[in-house]
Design a protein that fits this description.
The complex is a heterodimer of chains A (277) and B (73). Chain A contains seven helices and four strands. Chain A has 277 residues and is mostly helical. Chain A has a two-stranded antiparallel ribbon with strand order 1-2. Chain A has a two-stranded antiparallel ribbon with strand order 3-4. In chain A, a hairpin with a 2-residue loop joins strand 1 and strand 2. In chain A, helix 4 packs parallel to helix 6. Chain B is an all-alpha fold. Chain B has one domain: F1FO ATP Synthase (Up-down Bundle). In chain B, 90% of the residues lie in helices and 0% in strands. The N and C termini of chain B lie close together (8 Å). The chains are: A mainly alpha (277), B mainly alpha (73).
Chain lengths: 277, 73
């Protein structure tokens, strides 16, 4: 194993480490990260609703920017976007903050001493781990979105319509298409959670490796890169959840719904352009 | 040691396909943007979704190599 040849400079643990235990439940450092992200979001929400001005100041504009960007995109996705815009926004903001927490100084470097009872190795457990670098967190989010797009599919087309959708178009092909469709539904769960976890965890490993290799100046480049990736991954998760819900709703619809989408597409593009400038 | 080599191979070989796919997706998006800059809003969302799906293959390779390093070793 690599730990024995001075590999201890690079601290990599694929699972979140336990800080302390409450009965059978263990409290891990990724839970600290998730709580921190929630507290930050709640503080931002509290601040913005308490003293929101009609003409926003700098801080208020900065806080409103991601919300407006995401609302603009969701509004262009379907004519029934109001039903799920809150969920998508919640995904986006939570993942964005959870990703960016990993870039703060002190996260991953401040920790508590821990001696492995079996080998006697001394190691440090970081006090905070970005929540999205823990598979439990990303799988939890993916399960919420899975339940939501199945729920929306059933709500839009009825339970019979949903099953019919799974069985495919010519009914005699159902024995072949049903397993394929079921697997493809379930693989969304895996790919959603693994994509987010893999990206954020790989980013953490990359940063740790770069800091160990060249501690001065070089990690700054990768920090910038990770800031970009954190944003893109939050966007990707939210957009995929939105698309899955959107397709679940839009099944079996013709003509009218499409025309409504076209109308929305134009104001969505102006919103995206406004955000880009 | 074997599993470390396997992990490296899995990641390296697994990154070839997504790399090519992402290159094609980005080049086509830039081409479309160059032809019609006004379409940036309409291109943006499908573009992000497309690169996310292409990238997922690379992430599967990453997951396999992580499994090889942390679980199989």
């Amino acid at each position: 194993m690599p730990e024995e040849e001075g590999g201890s400079l690079i601290h990599v643990a694929i699972e979140a480490e336990t800080l302390f235990k409450i009965g059978p439940l263990s409290f891990t450092n990724s839970m600290v990260g998730a709580l921190l992200a929630s507290v930050l979001l709640l503080l931002a929400a509290w601040y913005i609703t308490r003293r929101s001005a009609l003409v926003p100041g700098r801080l208020q504009s900065a806080l409103e920017l991601p919300v407006e960007l995401m609302t603009g995109i969701v509004a262009g996705s379907s004519s029934r976007w109001r039903g799920y815009v809150a969920l998508i926004l919640g995904f986006f903001l939570m993942i964005l903050v959870a990703n960016w927490i990993g870039l703060l100084p002190g996260v991953g470097t401040i920790g508590v001493a821990h001696v492995d009872p079996e080998t006697g190795h001394e190691a440090m457990i970081p006090l905070v781990r970005p929540a999205s670098a823990d598979l439990n967190f990303t799988l939890g989010l993916a399960m919420v979105s899975f339940v939501m797009f199945v729920y929306w599919g059933i709500k839009a087309n009825g339970a019979g319509g949903y099953v019919k959708e799974l069985m495919g178009e010519p009914l005699y092909m159902a024995p072949l298409m049903l397993p394929i469709n079921l697997i493809s539904e379930l693989s969304r769960l895996i790919s959603l959670s693994m994509r987010l976890f893999g990206n954020v965890f790989a980013g953490e490993v990359l940063l740790a490796t770069m800091i160990a290799l060249a501690p001065i100046l070089v990690p700054a480049v990768f920090l910038g890169l990770e800031a970009l990736f954190g944003f893109v991954q939050a966007l990707v998760f939210a957009l995929l959840a939105m698309t899955y819900i959107g397709t679940a709703i839009a099944e079996h619809h013709t003509g009218g719904d499409h025309a409504a989408d076209e109308g929305h597409a134009s104001d969505h593009s102006t919103a995206a352009e406004a955000a880009a400038t | 040691m074997d599993s470390n080599l396997a992990a490296g191979l899995a990641m390296g070989l697994g990154a070839i396909g997504p790399g090519i796919g992402l290159g094609i997706a980005v080049s086509k998006a830039m081409e479309a943007l160059g032809r019609n800059p006004e379409a940036s809003g309409a291109i943006f969302v499908p573009y992000i979704l497309g690169i996310a799906l292409a990238e997922a293959i690379g992430i599967y390779a990453l997951v396999v190599s992580l499994l090889l390093i942390f679980v199989a070793a």
